[in-house]
Design a protein that fits this description.
- This protein has helices spanning 3-7, 11-17, 145-157, 171-204, 207-212, 214-306, 333-354, 391-399; strands spanning 18-24, 39-47, 50-56, 67-69, 74-75, 87-95, 101-110, 115-116, 121-122, 125-126, 132-137, 140-143, 309-311, 317-319, 322-324, 361-363, 370-373, 380-383.
- It is built from eight helices and 18 strands.
- The chain starts with a helix and ends with a helix.
- Helix content is 47%, strand content 21%.
Amino acid sequence: MTESFSKHPTLKWMVQNAQSVMIRNLAPERMVQSALPSTRLELCTDTDGKMITLYKSNVTSQSLNPTWTMSGLVPSAAQKDYLNIKNIIVRAVCTNADKSESVIFSEEVNLTQLVPFKQPVLNGKFSIPINLLLINIDDALYTTERSFNIFFARTAKYTGDVFVLDEETDPDTLATTSALSEGIAASQIHIEVLRKGLTTTLQKTDLVRLQTKKNDRQAELEKLRAEVAAAEAELTQNTIAFAEEKRIFAAGRKAEMMESTAACQELLTLQQSARVTINNKKQDWLKIKFLLEARKIKLLSELQTIYPIERLDNGEFAIRGVEMPADLYAREDEQVAAALGYTVHLLLLASKYLEIPLRYQLLFMASRSFIRDPVVGNGTTLPLFRRGTERERFDRAVLW
């Protein structure tokens, strides 16, 4: 214990030197909740019957073993007037489902009478009672004399009567554990009461009355022994049920975790396999696209070689060496019809290679080619040559 601990154990000293305040196995009396309690710490003082809150902490969510750090305390305006007090009241305040608040733990602490906490070992096991207040000062645990005495009285009298529940216990298991713990505690108390009653009866009965009423007392003794045996059997049964419930719960959790891990691994494998398949398909598609583009370029190059288009010195264009004049009536009919036939064949092959549909259907027949409109009526077909054709029909065909 430090020098400042023995000389200046005040509220100010506690706030500055303590690391945390803890309650182990929090068990509010006559309180039923559907979930673990969420609590905050309050350091208070009682002045003329009026409770004054000096410090508040943040809420510790859903825990039977709450721990509040001193660095998280929020002081009130009134705390300045009570920094040198040595008696404080430690309270745990719970927020209920209807948003109201309840004080589920309250203990008066005299800072000058804090005692070091050392946890004894009984029958090779650690045992912690309910509502044990601990204060961490300079990395050492201290408790009040009341908690200290209650702790050693309970652990010396009973072995394993308190069950420490960790914060990951789900509500259903908590309810089962609490019920079993209450049944065990009630059975132990009943056994103690029966034993005390038996001892008192034997002490108050003198030797003469024992001799005269031996049979009656013997019957009463047997009855009490039977009740004790029944209570002990119930205690044993509750202990076994609790151990079995705990084992089943642990096995179930382990099975669920293994199943979830296997499912996740399977999904990951499927995802990786799908990703590889998609990448392979993408590579195949890009390869096919490249080969298709290369094939189109090659076909168009060959088509350009077959039907070369060039500009003549007179400014006119020629396809495959056949002049295509701007004025189609300025040259002979066979020349114009041949040039138009070459053009029809070039357009048909280019649209096929590039997969581009044409608005008008082209019918290639060399110098006697036609153009057809499949939309109008049953299809209007016009000639792309002048011989034996009305001029209006020929001009209309060239415009298409």
